[in-house]
Write a structure and sequence with these properties.
20% of the residues lie in helices and 26% in strands. It is an alpha+beta fold. An eight-stranded antiparallel β-sheet has the order 1-2-7-8-12-11-10-9. Strands 13-14-15-16-19-18-17 form a seven-stranded antiparallel β-sheet. β9 and β10 form a beta hairpin. The longest helix is centred in the first third of the chain and has 18 residues. The chain is globular and about 65 Å long. This is Aromatic ring-opening dioxygenase LigA. Keywords: Membrane, Transmembrane, Transmembrane helix.
Length: 390
């Protein structure tokens, strides 16, 4: 028996639309219907999405699907939708969270997250406070040109299936003491567009910097902005190591170690990046230690996660400026200007497996952390770091 599709009368259309709108209201999401594409783009990400840049990246004539969600508040200005609570206890916090996603069939998608910082304490210990930046197989590189930001990908080799996917993060240190905005944009482009092409690489970051400019004005942040980016470096792959003695970036000043066989480094430039990495390895490049520096929201996020993961020890980066995390890592901290979140510096051994380690060179770990933290703090204008004792 043939099945016939029921005719959608005007009354049924209204009823269907009402159900969809009700569901969207329950989830806090706004989903735009076909035929309202321009209106959807104009309102996406609380109105700060750069429509021209999005069209240029995804295609001028591409049909776009737009989803959008805005909640919370930043400083004294509430978001257009969502709650208007901007305080947590006696300490001001920023609950603003904005998410929008624009997808073009056959081309790719752009997903944007905007978060105010610092976050309410009630959010601590419940997953990541901010959108993650991939750094498992590669080291994120700074944006440069006066931007405090990162360009990152989890692609270990150019030509992999994810070679057309990258994440750009832009940190806005607002004029209001202690407040900041973090804009994180994932761009995924299909087809012939790859990270290996320096001419198209800026396509992966232009939405993030343009969104940052609009957000800076929209929420009255007043941060110092960078200049347009015409070139972007590649994240550092696992096989791109060099002699540690010749390091000039994030690994500069870190000593070698004969006992631990540390002689090579994987590094990036510093260039105002809100997160820095330095990987120390053997002569063949096998990783031995990883050093990390976190600033602003990234420092806040790391402390929140370590508090959750190590709360049974009652000694964490959230409670003391420096110390040792079990048997696997050391941390240091530094006070930074204008009421910003204190910087966090970590060194972790690559062979750390819970609490089990073979002949750890603790003196070297503390010396490497001290050199790394001191150089990084100076670059960012922070105070001399507090360092762990023996």
């Amino acid at each position: 028996m043939a099945l016939t599709r029921p005719t959608l009368t005007r009354r049924r259309v209204r009823a269907l639309a009402a159900v969809v709108v009700a569901l969207a209201a329950l989830t806090g999401a706004i989903v735009w219907f076909a035929g309202s594409e321009d209106r959807a783009l104009d309102g996406a990400c609380d109105g700060v999405l750069p429509v021209g840049e999005v069209r240029a990246v995804l295609g001028e004539d591409a049909a776009l699907d737009v989803t959008n969600r805005t909640e919370g508040a930043f400083g004294d200005k509430a978001a257009k939708s969502g709650d208007k609570t901007a305080k947590s206890g006696g300490k001001r916090a920023n609950s603003l969270t904005v998410r929008c996603r624009i997808a073009a069939e056959g081309t790719g998608h752009i997903a944007v997250t905007i978060a105010g910082s610092p976050r309410p304490r009630a959010e601590y210990g419940y997953g990541e406070l901010y959108a993650a930046v991939p750094a498992s197989h590669t080291l994120p590189v700074p944006l440069g040109n006066g931007w405090s930001g990162l360009f990152a990908t989890d692609t270990a080799r150019l030509g992999d299936a994810e070679d057309g996917t990258a994440t750009t993060a832009v940190f806005l240190d607002c004029a209001r003491r202690g407040d900041s905005l973090l804009i994180t944009v994932e761009t995924a482009l299909r087809g012939a567009t790859t990270l290996d092409d320096p001419a198209t690489r800026p396509d992966f970051v232009r939405t993030a910097t343009a969104t940052a400019e609009a957000a800076n004005d929209h929420w009255g942040c007043g941060a110092r902005l960078g200049t347009p980016l015409r070139s972007v470096g590649l994240p550092v792959n696992e096989d791109e190591y060099e002699p540690l003695l010749g390091a000039k970036g994030t690994c500069a000043a870190v000593p070698t170690a004969s006992r631990s066989a540390v002689s090579t480094a994987r590094e990036t430039a510093r260039d105002r990046a809100p997160r820095e990495s330095c990987v120390l390895g053997t002569r063949e490049g096998s990783p031995l230690y990883r050093l990390e520096a976190y600033y602003g929201p990234y420092a806040e996020d790391a402390r929140s996660q370590y508090t959750r993961d190590y709360d049974y020890e009652n000694v964490t980066p959230a409670e003391k400026p420096a110390g040792r995390l079990g048997q696997s890592a050391y941390w240091a901290g530094a006070t930074c200007p204008r009421g910003a979140e204190s910087a966090l510096y970590l060194i972790r051994a690559a062979d750390a497996d819970g609490e089990t380690r073979r002949r750890p060179d603790l003196a070297y770990e503390r010396a490497a952390l001290a050199a790394f933290a001191t150089a990084s703090a100076q670059h960012h204008g922070c105070a001399a770091p507090s360092l762990p004792k023996g």
